[in-house]
Every structure is written in structure tokens, then in C-alpha cells.
Amino acid sequence: MQNTTIIPSIIAQNQEDLDHLLQKIGDHAHTLQLDVMDGQFVPSRSLDFGFELPFEDYEWEAHLMIKDPSRWIQVHGEFVDTIIVHFESLHHPRERIDSIKSIGKRAGLALNPETDLDQIKPYLNKLDQVLVMTVHPGYYGSSFLPETTKKIKELRRWEPQMDIEVDGGIKPETIGMVYQAGANLFVSGSYLVHSDNFKERMQVLRDSLR
């Protein structure tokens, strides 16, 4: 299995929001996930403005919860390291994965809880990672869905070396469950980013993986 990494997720309505969150996180995380939402694919909106990133400080993932990822990739793709698109938003998954790879980025597919894992099996050999949503996407603070661990276990059986990421409801009470199921990348939103002591909560999550 790959190395384990805890990844804070960023939801921001404007550059001021984004800068405030990055200041809170500081140097206590290496990889950050941008939660990009268009108010259509999911009800919420986030990072739908011309944002600026401090490139030298972090590895960046973009989790595109949007109906048309192609446009976002054309405009912003060069500024991030990994681009994760939702399988449910794609008409031609293989073409979209190839387009991400063609600009030198890591490619990932995200799956909503109700999406069957078999649907992405034809594309696994082209992917760098798979993101298993452990909540219904679009909000900070949604409730963890324990039944999603079955999907993680099955995917790990198929792909012993692939990065398997989980996103949604990740906190001390749940991170061990998804780790034992086979996940190695753990996205945490409200538990980390809405806390008063980011560093302390990062350590709690790390300790929960021991």
C-alpha cells in the first residue's frame, strides 16, 4: 500500500476565505484539496472565482464536483498537481483521463456513494488514484456512510498499489475504519478546517492511524 496522508479540504467563496484557511493550515499539512463546486452537480458553490494559490507551499489536488470539468481543467489545470473528476459527470471517462494526463497531471476518478465500483473498472489502469466518497458530496459536515467501506475493501483487492482516497465525515471515530478497509489518503474538511486548533486536530488524526 502507498504512504498514508491526511489532506485538508478547502471550501472558499472568495480569495479572502481562501487566504484565511491557508493561513490557519500553515505548514501543518503538505497536500491540500480544493473542493470545486458549481451549484449544479452539487447544491453548494466553492472556488468558482479566479483564485490564486501559493504554489511553492503545497501539493494541490482539485476535486471537481462540477458538471463540466473540461472548462475548469483548461483554465486552472496547470496550477494543480492532481485533478479528480467525478465519474458521474463524464460522458467519455477515458478521454477526460487522457486529457488530464496530457498536461502532465495525476488523474483521479471520484465515485458518489451510490455509484457501483464496477463502472470504473475499465479505467483503473489509466488512473493514479480513486476517490471513494464516504458522504453524499457538496457540504462540510455531512454524516459518514459506513457502508462505503465495502467499496474501499473491494477496490483495494483489485488494486493493491493504487492510491485510494476517502472524502467525507473523516474524523477520529471514522478514519480507522476506512484505513482498515484499505484507504491510504484521507480528506478531512470540517473536523480540521473549522477547528480552533488545526495543528492539534491533525495530530489527533495521525495518532488515530497508529
Describe it for me?
This protein is α/β, with parallel strands linked by helices. 30% of the residues lie in helices and 23% in strands. The protein has helices at residues 15-25, 69-76, 93-102, 149-158, 172-181, 190-193, 198-208; strands spanning 5-10, 31-38, 45-46, 59-65, 82-86, 106-111, 129-133, 163-167, 185-188.
Looking at CATH, the homologous superfamily is: Aldolase class I
| Secondary structure category | alpha/beta
Low-pLDDT regions: none
CATH topology: TIM Barrel
Task: Give a short overview.
The protein is of the alpha/beta class. 30% of the residues lie in helices and 23% in strands.
List keywords for this structure.
alpha/beta, eight-stranded parallel β-barrel, 7 helices, 23% strand
Helix/strand layout:
Layout: E1 5-10, H1 15-25, E2 31-38, E3 45-46, E4 59-65, H2 69-76, E5 82-86, H3 93-102, E6 106-111, E7 129-133, H4 149-158, E8 163-167, H5 172-181, E9 185-188, H6 190-193, H7 198-208
Parallel strand pairs: 1-2, 1-9, 2-4, 4-5, 5-6, 6-7, 7-8, 8-9
Antiparallel strand pairs: 2-3
